[in-house]
Amino acid sequence: MSFTPATNLSAASSEALTVAYVSTLPPRQCGLATFCTALEDAVSRAARSYSVPVPVLESNLAPDGPSIVRDDVDSYIKAAQQLNQLPVDIVCIQHEFGIFGGASGSLLGRFLSTLDKPVISILHTILPDPSEDQRRAMDAVIAGSAKLVTMSQKGRRFLKEVYGVPEEKIVLIEHGFYRRTATDPEAQKKQVGLGGKKVLLTFGLVSAGKGIETAISALPDIVKLHPDLVYVIAGATHPAVLRDEGERYRDSLVQLAEELGVVEHLHFVNRFMEDGELLDWLSLADVYVTPYPNLRQITSGTLSFAFGNGVPVVSTPYWHAEELLADGRGCLVPPHDPEAMASAITGLLSDDEKRLAMADRARAYADAFTWEATGHRYAELMQKVSSDWRSRRKLHFVDFSRNAPAASIELPFAHLSRLNDGVGIAQHAVHKIPDRRHGYCTDDCARMLMVVAPATGRSETPPAAARSAYTCAAFLEHAWNEEEVRFRNFMSYDRNWLDQGGSDDSNGRALWALGLTSARAGDEGLRAWAENAYLRARPLRENLQSPRSLAFAVLAEHERRRVYGPDGDDPFLRLGKHLMHQRGEIAARQPDWVWFETALSYDNARLPQGLLLAAEVMKREDWMEEGLKTLRWLCELQWKGDFFNFIGTRNFGQDYTAFHKIDEQPIEAAALVDAAVAAYRFSRDESWADIAEQAYAWFLGQNRLRLPLADMSDGSCLDGLHAERGNQNCGAESTLALHQASLSIRDLRRLTLNEQSDHLEQVAGGQTI
């Protein structure tokens, strides 16, 4: 495989296709390498294509071009970054738990989360009861793939029932095989010294667990009726077994045959065979046997080869064999049962009519998945996935320029009204229907109050919005726990509090809502209540520990200062000192990690935003510089050239990594809008205004999936972006994030319009700018 045009024998499409194949590859001797080589050849014959090999290696003897070293984390990231720079249309991954590094191959997730290309993953193993590590690794593959290919109906069922994969994401394409040309079996037998013999065949890499000892144990009963039989075991010992154990297993098979008195009926071909030589052996086989004891095998390439070439098969009923050999297309026998195996094999060898009829049924059934037919199916799938991906990326977006009128982003209140009742705002929704099972929380009522309080007291404000401000104010009033000096957070739908004191972050957000409402509410009564409630709750600031909660406290106090003037510097000083101390420690340990914490999580941009506000109040240029620096780093980390790809929930708690960018949440976009607007106000650097606009455009379709999350007809917002689709639920947090970002963008546009007007007036007046 190389980065060269492939021979095109019957092009399925006039459009060239460049495919990157991620797999073990020759010269490595394993089933995945053989499969991937055959697949690349089949696709090249079905479509005008180029191939980019991405070999998965055991050691750091990397060839030129992208490659992955099994246990080297950086190689996964580097390979994805290299593919992002190449004109690759589709990435095709051969997935097997054992070939990738990390717990159950989890390092593949690093590759997928860094990659900015469409992915088709071919699943060679699908477990119905995965371990915790296997489930996590599999979930990363599912999330990072546009399509998942399984080779059996049982695999399709497992993906849907065990892993929750939607039907439209699953594609069933049976294991391909090469078909031999018609030959004279007897002549073939003579060429290898088996003339006049009946041949029982097993081929593939030899290792314990293949059940070959069961087939050998069946030989005494078989040779009683067919003394001319030879059992051919064709294939090298598995390289990993050979490295760790040598030929111990093969030697044990010879010893068993000697003990049973059938060693002269045993014939080993101890070498790795390419497809052409395998076809030669299949052409002379009378019966093929797969005696695997593990019945949970969902794919077998050797079975597909033998079956497709019309060799009668006797097999244990592992999953793949059950499907292929149904309806008289083969014989199934219990595992570890030499007598049943001997009976099935002698029954076929003694009845040529039955054996040939079985071969014909198998050959006819397999016509649909020769490598020629399978190559066309894969080529068509690759073309479609690539085309869909390009179409999404070519969508045209509304021009959200800073010169747009501020009124252009006024949002309807319909969905927020739908979520709000007489108690508060429902946390969650099923699509757009409030989900009462999860009740209410202080976090969301605080967010709601921040969105609607500034609009109260105005004639143009919808009555429902004004009512919701008072509803959420009442919720916060009730949430205050005087004994604990904290706000409760969670309330069930039947109005019972589920805690006595919420998290630091929910308490910090409640303070922020009160501070903003006391400074901005249009209704005087609401402002007076908020100021009183803020002063009552202010002592809880002393117990806040998390940096985000401190940032929320800074945002609260900064709002009040605009109206009430200075009232102590404590939150600004605490946050600034804490973040700068953390930066210093992390910079000493990990210089490239330009952040305040070892891991990125949620509401990330609130930290540099809080530091900028603290720098302004405390008149600290070094804090201001660090706030802008870290915010710029966060933006660059998530910028994909023409859209933001925000850190997803899977990245939370992953130290010094920023690779999991699926399951993106709207609060990240809203936080970045606010932080970028703050950076613009302090620096007057127009790039920050551009960043704010780009972050806001994420809601409107300028994102990884080119999918609008905002519904401008009712003001609702999807709960986030999964790997290949939006989360169709429209809960409170996401919808309020949209509204909060919209208000900030409106203010930004008004600010920039005013500045442009001032500039024009100065120019018209002949003043020097």
Automatic annotation (TrEMBL):
Residues 70-176 form the Glycosyltransferase subfamily 4-like N-terminal domain. Signal peptide: none annotated. CDD domains: GT4_mannosyltransferase-like. It comes from the Bacteria. Gene3D superfamilies: Glycogen Phosphorylase B. GO terms for biological process: carbohydrate metabolic process. Residues 187-363 form the Glycosyl transferase family domain. One of its GO terms (molecular function) is glycosyltransferase activity. PANTHER family: BLL5144 PROTEIN, GLYCOSYLTRANSFERASE. This is Glycosyltransferase family 4 protein. It comes from Parvularcula maris.
